[in-house]
Amino acid sequence: MITGTVTVLAGTLALLSSKGLLLHRFAGNLFLGCMVALSLSGLYLSFTRMIVFTGFLAMFALYLVTTGWVAAKRKDGASGLFEKIAMGGIIACALGCAVSGFFTPPSLAAPEDVPPPVAYYVLAVLALAFGILDFSVVRRGGVSGKHRIARHLWRMCFSMFIAVTIFFLGNNNILPEFFRQPALLVAPILSVVIISIFWLLRVLFTRWRPSRRAVSCDRPTLPL
């Protein structure tokens, strides 16, 4: 619960703070660390308890947050071994989801905690789409300018969406009773979606750029 709470708070701070400056980078790095920890714990639970869908979802979240973070650290027009490994991993995840969905019984015949086949297929389609995008990035040798920033933004926001959805809908029994109203549980998730769309549109369709101070504070690119 503590890690999940810190993840949500750090992600919220990163979304709302000035992009590229110290507070944003601190919150983003904290969010990265917490998401990696949650994803690895999800993978562990999926293997120990044989919860297949949880394992794929954990892999999906881990892929999104790490590739999103690396996109922010890369220089314009740069890519490396990490992007190739991530591409292979997410395509393997897509194939695994598709196969698991085929062998999953319909929801009426499955236990209550087993998602229906359509959940696996949706995740498989998303994972395959991201793998195709990665292939395009690797083939071109990276992305530049607003497209690199957008790649960082939507991947981090998507992982934030997963974290907030699981926190407020998947484990709402840990929340105070007064907070377990449908409107209150859905409001944070919708807020993440709206703020994410706002920033994505601003980056892609306006002249917004990180401040000079933010650019000057950037760290060198990853050597991978």
Secondary-structure element series? HHHHHHHH
Distance between the termini: 34 Å
Average pLDDT score: 86
Number of strands: 0
Portion of residues within helices: over 70%
Counting H and I runs of at least 4 residues, what is the number of helices?
A: 8
- Based on secondary structure, the structural category is mainly alpha
Q: What is the approximate shape? A: globular
Are there runs of 5+ residues with pLDDT below 50, and where? 214-224
Largest sheet: none
Question: Outline of this structure?
Answer:
It contains eight helices and no strands. By secondary structure, the chain is an all-alpha fold.
Write the layout of secondary structure elements.
Blueprint: H1 2-16, H2 22-49, H3 52-73, H4 81-103, H5 117-140, H6 145-170, H7 182-205, H8 212-216
Helix pairs in contact: 1-2, 1-6, 2-3, 3-4, 3-5, 3-6, 4-5, 6-7
